[in-house]
Amino acid sequence: MAKFVPVAKSTELKPGEMKRVLVDGERVCLVNVDGTYYALRDQCGHQKAALSKGKLEGSVIECPLHFARFDVRTGKVLRGPDFGRLQLAGLEKLGPEAVAMFQRIGEIIADVQCEDVPTYQVRVQGDWVQVSL
Q1: Which terminus of the chain has a lower count of CB atoms within 10 Å, N or C?
Q2: What is the pTM of this model?
Q3: Residue range 67-126, pLDDT digits in tens
């Protein structure tokens, strides 16, 4: 039998909002999509950035670090990192060697495989949203 842990009052998250909660020491991103709650590991499948600090559009969450996108309902990768969106304003002031170094780092990071993010069971009991790992 799954062990459900109360993590938030059902009134804490409005539709379109998300937040980090802890379940047995595990960082979990709790999301409200149109009144339905979803939970997934609060860790991007690319380089482990906190998804709860990213952007939510409908049922799609975007990593704040490299803009990878995931479906919060399934944890599936919808798009890997999007390095074309990185803005490194002022980098040219550091000189051509620094620009070349950051471009090389971007190429290496872009080659890191982006994996699906684990999702967890969620239920609402009374006023509480509960998550089971």
Answers
A1: N
A2: 0.83
A3: 899 999 999 999 988 766 655 556 667 788 877 887 787 777 777 789 999 999 999 999
Element (H, E) at 38: strand 36-41
Q: What pLDDT score does 88 carry?
A: 59
Classify residue 98: in a domain, yes or no.
no
| 127 in a structural domain | no
Q: Give the confidence band of 2 by pLDDT, cuts at 50, 70, 90.
A: confident
Nearest-CA neighbor of 59 among 16, 109, 112?
A: 16
Give the list of residues 6+ apart from residue 34 with CB closer than 8 angstroms, or none: 15
**What CATH number does residue 77 fall under?**
2.102.10.10
| Contacts for 32 with CB less than 8 Å, ≥ 6 apart | 13, 14, 15, 16, 17, 18
The SS3 assignment for 4 reads: coil
Tell me the C-alpha to C-alpha distance, in Å, between residue 79 and each of 31, 53, 60, 111, 116.
19, 18, 10, 13, 10
Question: What is the residue range of 51's domain?
Answer: 5-86+114-122
